[in-house]
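Bug #77: duplicate submission created two jobs. Keeping one. Sequence:
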Amino acid sequence: LPSGFTYLPVPTVISVAPSSGYASGNTPVVIAGTGFLSGDIFLFGGSPATNVAVQNSTTATALTPSGIVGSADVSVVDLYGQTSTLTSGFTYVAIPAPPPELFSISPTVGNTSGGNTVVLNGANFTASDTVTFGHIPVTVTFINSNTLSVVVPPDVGTVDIAVVDAFGQEDTLY
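Kept job's structure:
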């Protein structure tokens, strides 16, 4: 029978963009590779992605499943059971804590030579937070999740105070 059988190449995963997302999942990703067909299953750390849409033989889109913090292999499995894996093709990162919230400072005035100790009141503070007074970094003493203490740098005038957490989330008191 002429042309009675077709050999399909093993699909391959070449890259995933973005290459990281939160461990809670649902990160929209674009998967690049070869030999993709409608019906292919994409696995992240062994768990199937959702909302998979094969755009063409080299591109698919999907939402990542939830995973464990760290690197995960990304695999494609076609309808015939052929599979290939991109080792450590995606990295799950921790879900950030709520952003810091800065409500008030006390006292609200100090001398221009600096050196005053100021207490910052707010919420969601952590020991890794950084603080700036008018874009000047200051030394932070973590008291608790609602209170930070800092020593004011020398400056003149009224300045903004910002608290930034380890994830880059920021709150500024103007």
